[in-house]
Amino acid sequence: MLAGLQSAVALVACGKRGPSVAALGSDARVLALGDSLTVGYGATPEEAWPTRLAQLTGWRVDNEGVNGDTSAGALQRLEALLAANSYDAVLVGIGGNDMLRGMSQQTTKDNLAAIVRTALAHTPRVALIATPAPDPLRATVGSLSDAGFYEVVAKAEKALLIPDVYATVLSDPALRSDRIHANAQGYAVVAQQLADRLKAAGWR
Questions:
Q1: pTM (2 d.p.)
Q2: Is 27 helix (H, G, I), strand (E, B) or coil?
Q3: What secondary structure does DSSP assign to 28-57, as a single string?
Q4: Is residue 200 scored above 70 in pLDDT?
Q5: Helix residue ranges per DSSP H, the chain
Q6: Bridge partner residues of 146 (DSSP)
Q7: Smallest Cα–Cα separation from 160: which of 70, 108, 92?
């Protein structure tokens, strides 16, 4: 697992980061937009990765995850969230339910691109957290991999791509509460990896 995480960090360093931006202060306000993996399903709210990320960074991280949400739902919610608050950064982790429901990949890509563009109009710091493609066999053998469209969208829209975090955690039975959700330990790993990746990208 350690080798996989090191490789993922190397990938970020090799061109998967978005435009250069100034580091966030310890008082920064960050929006975490997502689905049940953002909510922290399978653990308590205090153990969800946005809460743990806030503890690691000092940032105020607003957990706007919704169980069962899709890319279309997140896009619909985003405009009102950005209108109501001033965010220094936006972390987007959505699309897993699209894949589980067999939605068109093109539709998901279009929605993700629209989410990133909308967020970038609000702040230059937007990160796209890749979600693994659902595959029970690969999950069983511990080798989940990210759906490819996250990299395509991040590159096209010039957002920071954060690959392999969810895939690594959900590939490890010790870090899962069920086949598609992390447990408390898993969300702690997600938070630490996000903190490390964002630091490597110059956000901290």
A1: 0.89
A2: coil
A3: -EEEEEESHHHHTTTS-GGGSHHHHHHHHH
A4: yes
A5: 2-13, 36-39, 49-57, 71-84, 96-100, 105-120, 136-140, 149-157, 165-170, 184-200
A6: 132
A7: 92
Cα–Cα dist 128/99, whole Å: 16
Q: Is the Cβ–Cβ distance between 14 and 202 less than 8 Å?
A: no
50-92 per-position pLDDT tens digit: 999 999 999 999 999 999 999 999 999 999 999 999 999 999 9
| 3-class secondary structure, 156 | helix
Q: What is the residue type of 185?
A: Q
Burial 86-107 (b: 16+ CB within 10 A, else e): ebbbbbbbbbbbbbeeebebee
Q: Compute CA distances 181 → 80, 94, 143, 171, 175, whole Å.
A: 27, 13, 15, 10, 9
Q: Minimal CA–CA distance to 159: which of 99, 114, 105, 98? A: 114
Read off the tokens for 80. Answer: 């009102």
What's the one-letter identity of residue 36?
S
How long, in residues, is the chain? 204
**CA–CA distance, 183 with 173 (Å, rounded to integer):** 10
